[in-house]
Amino acid sequence: MANLKTKVLLTGGAGYIGSHTAKLLTKHGYEVIIIDSLFPSQSKKFYGNFYKLDLAEEEKVLEVLRKEKPEIVLHFAAFISVPESIEKPFLYYENNVGNTIKLLSAMKKVGIKNFIFSSSAAVYGIPDIIPVPETAELKPINPYGETKVMVEKILRDMARVKEINYVSLRYFNVAGADPEGELGPTYKQPTHLIIRALKVAKGEIPYLEIYGTDYPTPDGTCIRDYIHVMDLAEAHILAMEYLLSKRENLVLNCGYGRGFSVREVVSTVKKVTGVDFKVIETSRRPGDPPILIADNTKIKEILKWRPKYNSLEDIIKDTWQWELKQNEN
Ligand code: UDP
Fold first, then answer.
1. What is the number of structural domains in the chain?
2. Cα 307–Cα 133–Cα 136 angle in degrees, nearest 5
């Protein structure tokens, strides 16, 4: 049973995954505190007590932790674009690794030991086994994935000497929006496939590029495991409750264990929106593994995670509803 007064601090709680998790935490009766720089994306709606702060502002973060004394920190704040990480590697190491170290250091000073980390399937690079289990070798092929491996190593080593208790959630391709229509993806310049395709359907972007049609997959385009953001939010709550009651460290894949190609996503977006938009096949984008599908046996067994939104069509429908609402103002 969850302690209804448990105080939870979310970095990046106004961002895409953080805002959905904050809403679900609030529904479950948790007290939510948010630290967010409101860059590069933001939700217009916040669930919880909000502090506008960048994690680089170490002293101010420390002040908030001292004042609020949360029992656990959920660390969402990070840069998330694979192509951008290739263009601007230092920016990614500085924010995703450097600022995480600052946060961990502030937590140590205040004596907060429980931590949920937003990791990524990008840690696997091009996996040898599909679906990929958590035990697979970590061999990222882009700086974004490297930053996630680095933080996981820091957490593993700190946990070994009991400096921290943590769950690292390795997200596969997160998509979808709050089915109640309050929250959704808020990126100013989205790079992700589903959102870009929907913006093309809406006429905000002139055409969709398919990056590479010569991959070793049945239709030549990359395959990904798309997971609904609400199922991911639920995984955070289960992970948190597990950590707080058992104090055992975990590394878990968050995906459905099935994949869709870029072409399959494009045809589902056309079907859901009813718009036959323009698609251009171009060359491969650097840093993209051909296939990423989660082996989710562990999260289902240990956390009893039972996804409720496992349908590509529903993921796209919820995101489409959200996109359409953004024009209403
Ligand atoms: N993709 C694409 N066109 C786009 C955006 C993405 O063909 O406009 C492809 C991309 O190359 C990858 C897949 O869609 O194979 C998923 O990319 P996304 O950026 O959504 O997520 P990632 O897997 O990089 O985290």
1. 2
2. 150
* 125 assigned to some structural domain: yes
The answer to whether residue 187 is domain-embedded is no
Helices in the chain by DSSP H: which ranges?
16-27, 58-68, 82-87, 89-92, 99-110, 143-160, 193-202, 229-246, 262-273, 297-303, 312-325
Pocket-testing residue among 79, 195, 211, 293, ligand 1, by greatest number of atoms within 8 A of Cβ:
211
Identify the CATH number of the domain in which residue 50 sits: 3.40.50.720
Answer whether 196 contacts ligand 1 (Cβ < 6 A).
yes
pTM comes to 0.96
290 within 8 A of 124, measured Cβ to Cβ: no
The pLDDT confidence band at residue 40, using thresholds 50, 70 and 90, is low
Q: Are 241 and 270 found together in one domain?
A: no
What letter represents residue 176's amino acid? Answer: G
With cut-offs at 50, 70 and 90, classify the pLDDT of residue 1. very low
67 and 115 part of one domain: yes
| Residues 203 and 156 placed together within one structural domain of the fold | no
- Specify the pLDDT at position 92: 98
pLDDT, tens digit (0-9, with 9 covering 90-100), for 178-198: 999 999 998 778 899 999 999
88 alpha carbon to ligand 1 midpoint, in Å? 18
pLDDT, tens digit, 9 for 90 and up, residues 206-215: 999 999 999 9
